[in-house]
Amino acid sequence: MGKLVWDKQGERYYETGVSKGVLYPMSNGAYQTGVVWNGLTQVSESPEGAETTALYADNIKYLNLQSVEEFKATIEAYTYPDEFAACNGETNLADGVQIGQQKRIPFGLSYQTKIGTDDDPEKGYKIHIIYGALAAPSEKAYATVNDSPEAITFSWEVSTTPVEVEGFKPTASVVIDSTKISADALKNLENYLYGTDDAEAAIPLPDKIVELVSSNSTSESTDTTTTDTDAQG
Q1: Is residue 185 part of a domain?
Q2: For 93-142, what is each residue's pLDDT tens digit?
Q3: Model pTM?
């Protein structure tokens, strides 16, 4: 092994930004067609749990028990798609009349963050996918227009229900790094997530993602009609 060297040129990585948000609302236990989420400004991932409880026996520390880890997040945006209304506990009472405090439906979400280095700010990007999300009620602060006007920012605290992953524990989040998979694999995945001229946008479950990125042919990515979009919400 050679001597360790820190901060070599081209190896000073960083992540920034949030873009290409897509909402996948659920209905009857299945994810529906994805829709564009414009105005997405921030997604703060905040896992909780995985806390240790120490057990003692024979006058010594016997072992540590670790609690279950839960994936939570906060979504912030200037606006949200009409399809998110049901996820936000809103429904139409009549044309142009909306009421709140209704049943909130689960949803999936995907978005991208940029990967950069000291000599290449466009090195690549990561695709983040969240499953089984449920939005909590949020505050809406309306203020008068003045000489320094600001747009209202909506914010939602989100909890999740994990989905099954073959050979692993259930998870509520997946991250795909564009710099670590082939161009064909990335195209397969993005065709599935964002749709094509012949197929609607759909959210792939983790096992389907493995199938998509393991394929050598982009033609398979257009088939989004399979039942793998079913999930626990």
Answers
A1: no
A2: 888 888 888 999 999 999 999 999 888 888 999 999 999 999 998 777 77
A3: 0.85
Closest of 92, 130, 135, 89 to residue 113, by C-alpha: 130
Give the C-alpha separation, 15 to 125, whole Å: 8
Q: Which element (helix H / strand E) includes 111? A: strand 107-116
| Contact present, 166 and 190 (Cβ < 8 Å) | no
d(CA 26, CA 233) in angstroms, rounded, equals 8
The residue range of the domain holding 151 is: 14-179
- Residue 198 one-letter amino acid: D
Q: Where are the alpha helices (DSSP H) in 8-140?
A: none
Segment holding 210, helix H or strand E: helix 206-214
Distances in Å between the Cα of 220 and the Cα atoms of 50, 212, 231 are 38, 8, 21
Q: How far is CA 194 from CA 69, 84, 216, 221, in A?
A: 30, 17, 19, 11
Asked, for residue 216, whether it belongs to a domain, the answer is no
Number of folded domains in the chain? 1
**Structural domain includes residue 121:** yes
Q: Is 228 inside a domain boundary?
A: no
Q: What is the CATH number for 63? A: 2.30.110
Are 126 and 112 in contact by the 8 Å Cβ rule? The answer is: yes
